Amino acid sequence: MADLVPIVFEVPGEVERPRSRGRGSPNTSVPIDLKRPEWLKVRLPMGPEVEELRRLMRSKSLHTVCEEAHCPNMGECWGAGTATFMILGDTCTRSCGFCAVKTGRPTELDHAEPARVADAVAAMGLGHAVVTSVNRDELRDGGAAIFAATIREIRRRSPGTTVEVLIPDLRGSSEALDIVLDERPEILDHNVETVPRLYPRVRPQAVYARSLEVLRRTKERAPDLVCKSGIMVGLGETRDEVIATMRDIRAQGTDILTVGQYLRPSPVHLPIERYWTPDEFASFRDDGMAMGYRHVESGPLVRSSYHAERHVSV
């Protein structure tokens, strides 16, 4: 099982209190962190490579999902000089119960953002760039035009770089999805996140069938593009529900699946119901491959962008 779990170190100290997200007062009756098993201890993001990347992002007024979503792999990825860019600002119009990105009323669109992302990609010399975003439900196209512009700018500045976009559901608009697909990213990723029974609690403004339709439409419209999705476990789902959800995602033609452990980012977020073991994650990987996925990245610390550069050629 060593291939599933990075070698990491325990993080000491308290978990930072979150910014207001409109979810009410913290539930102090539920511990922020039950004692984590050894396979979930991560190292602090530090070192010269991390500081250099942090300075680059701040100098260009850019956001990364690594920071905003409290990703457990930030130390590993930033230490290797990779990051996932988060466009369309840092404020989301939705309030998913698992996500650390702040909720509220977004600011106006920053039309210079795509060029700054492309500048950072070029400065980092990335061979594979991953771009995601907050939800912008107040926009008619959900931000699709900014995604498209970002892909174009990266291609202009770094023509040899492959591009992966992790998009929201764009409120189910096929026209908005086509705006992104017309730019032909190498990988389009849309996460289903959890099993359908838990959607009202975990993703209250999302619709399970709508997320599946994003994946189906992607493969219908661009069959040669790599289509990717992800789910997390630990929110109260059963194994049978996970397997059924994996089948649903694969039935849309999805090529790659990521499966990771949910980690509660703050006291106002949903509690962890259980920790799934490395062996159970290995079982999900084997089951997924038997369903016909080209690749399944499954492990306790796996996130959508984890080892993303390897997914272009699988």
Describe the structure.
The protein is of the alpha/beta class and 314 residues long. It has a single domain (38-310), classed as TIM Barrel (Alpha-Beta Barrel). Helix content is 32%, strand content 13%. The chain is built from ten helices and ten strands. An eight-stranded mixed sheet has the order 1-2-5-6-7-8-9-10. A two-stranded parallel ribbon has the order 3-4. Helix 4 (113-124) runs parallel beside helix 5 (144-157). The longest helix is centred in the middle third of the chain and has 14 residues, at 144-157. 43% of the residues are buried.
Put the structure in a nutshell:
This protein is of the alpha/beta class and 314 residues long. Helices cover 32% and strands 13% of the residues. It has helices at 48-59, 65-68, 74-79, 113-124, 144-157, 174-181, 199-202, 208-221, 239-251, 278-291; strands at residues 63-64, 84-87, 91-92, 102-103, 128-133, 162-166, 187-189, 226-233, 256-261, 295-298.
